[in-house]
Amino acid sequence: MKCPRKFLAVSVTICLALAAFLAFRARETFGQDASQEQSPHTQDPRARIRTTVSLVVVPVTVKDSAGELVTDLGPNDFRVFEDGIEQPIAVFSADWFPLSVAILIDDDLKQGTAEKVQKTLETLGGAFTASDEVSLWRFDEVPEEISEGFIADNDKLLTQLKHIDLSSSFPGIGSYTMTDGPRVNTAAPPGPAKIPTEANGHPNTKHVNDAIYAAAEELQDRPRERRKIIFLISDGQNAKNNTHKYDDTLKLLLSADISVYAVGVGEANLNRGITFLGNNILSKYAHSTGGDIFYGGVSRENLEELYGRVTDQARNQYTIAYSGAHTDRSKPYHSIEVRVKRPGLALLTRDGYYVNAMP
After folding, report:
1. pLDDT in tens, 32-55
2. Which of 9, 22, 267, 329 is most buried per CB count within 10 Å?
3. Exposed/middle/buried for 254, CB within 10 Å: 0-12, 13-18, 19+?
């Protein structure tokens, strides 16, 4: 009669030992007890952002005093405020996100600047990974999409970049002598010729607002788990008669979680600190959307290096998401402020968002 009891006791002991071993392996594999639910910070952030539509997603770039990226911060290092009210962080990630990028190339640059940009365009392809998708645009008075949608294949992207021609016309050489109107996509526009109003240099007819607006319309429907950016290469000269005003364009960018990263070339280097009367429009868009602006030097190598810095910075942002509690949800616009506890660091993030137009 004792043998069955001994056999039962041994069996129970073996089962308990096996259960303990399996629990240990689960903790070893997943970093925590498998019976415990994962915390918001350890769940896949892209999955949570995709499925939780009500979350406000805030990409944040952190730099030190030397301008280098800071990548060793955790969720406890940040504080987030909406309309001045502190918000609990629901999702935090330091992982990179795949990029959806619209590259806007200024097609109305002065000859020397255009030639330098032309020689560097092929190197843009090396700034993206197999997980990214890229659409290509050029613009002067009218934005033109070259790529017919997004390109996810790097070889196809390189082929498209090789075929971009910025040498069809070179404005701003000596006295302005063009009498048949500015050319768009190498073809003369219909209607009478435009007579220049300036004796020297060409009149500013470039529409930066409209180009950004068109690219943002294409980007706004990309999935929320992708980082959406506009990569703008321009001298920043912007005409007054854009179809879309700055405020309307910025509203679309903030509503669709799109950041603008600009590489300023040519005259943009002379207007770095000027923001009145629409000058340095590149800086205004970049800083309001949580992007950044870089200024291209005189060398081709410097410009190519900046292309890599843009995508590296966009890819290595912190991602913070919160639910927007205890604020007036009837308001169309909400301000965002992000603070970091570690001293001596600079933050780049967007100014706010429009709740009624969130994707």
Report:
1. 333 333 444 546 776 676 666 678
2. 267
3. buried
